[in-house]
């Protein structure tokens, strides 16, 4: 999408760029495995882009600011695993610009506060294919998740050689890195408002996965801990950590803008 080029130009020295979407070397998801995952077909003037997002209620989607800050409208794919087909149970919902909420302090030049919300025009009916992820509890005691396994999913390219987003939903499960280790790769860009995932073995998010979920599973609960933000512009199989907006840093903002909270 447009911001991919802009960010790469602004931060050529760091060769970082917002991810327009993919999971490299991931596994294919089965129907209903990630019921909180949505796809976003974004209309920007006469062009478009593809991103991911997460249901956090029956009416609200969480995604990345760099996906939606120039959007005229968004079509939300709900209950989908195959985006080129109309599957049983799949819904495609139009969201107008007035229902797109981009963080007011989003700064594309520094890629900070990379978070936005979409308000759906009607409440969804949850089922085996459609269900919200759970926000971390708003209690002020947040895990760093360092060393814990987390799952990222999306329809991005499945390798650096691919030239189109994946027609099927894919996912990777990899450990969360220490901020100090991540900062070795992304000097000065790793703050307490982001979270990093290891991409060892080329298993990574990439272009097209932007805004999509990073989830830490505890028992049967899918806690949404991140939204795909940026990675290496030179390729997603190079071993640079994937960086996500840290959801625990924005729980107050999410509650203020949408009313969604986990007490």
UniProtKB/TrEMBL annotation:
Q: Which domain of life is it from?
A: Eukaryota
What does the entry give for GO biological process? proteolysis
> What keywords are annotated for this sequence in UniProt?
Disulfide bond, Hydrolase, Protease, Serine protease, Signal, Zymogen
Q: What is the lineage of its organism?
A: Eukaryota, Metazoa, Ecdysozoa, Arthropoda, Hexapoda
Please report the name of this protein according to its UniProt entry.
Answer: GH16119
Give the family this protein belongs to, as stated in its UniProt record: Belongs to the peptidase S1 family. CLIP subfamily.
Extract the Pfam families matched here. Trypsin (PF00089)
**PROSITE patterns hit by this protein:** TRYPSIN_DOM, TRYPSIN_HIS, TRYPSIN_SER
Q: Start and end of every Peptidase S1 domain?
A: 23-259
Query: Which GO molecular-function terms appear in the entry?
Result: serine-type endopeptidase activity
Tell me the organism. Drosophila grimshawi (Hawaiian fruit fly)
Signal sequence: where?
A: 1-16
CDD domains, per database record: Tryp_SPc
Gene behind the chain:
Dgri\GH16119
Looking up InterPro entries in the UniProt record yields: Peptidase_S1_PA (IPR009003), Peptidase_S1_PA_chymotrypsin (IPR043504), Peptidase_S1A (IPR001314), Ser/Thr_Proteases_Immune/Dev (IPR051487), Trypsin_dom (IPR001254), TRYPSIN_HIS (IPR018114), TRYPSIN_SER (IPR033116)
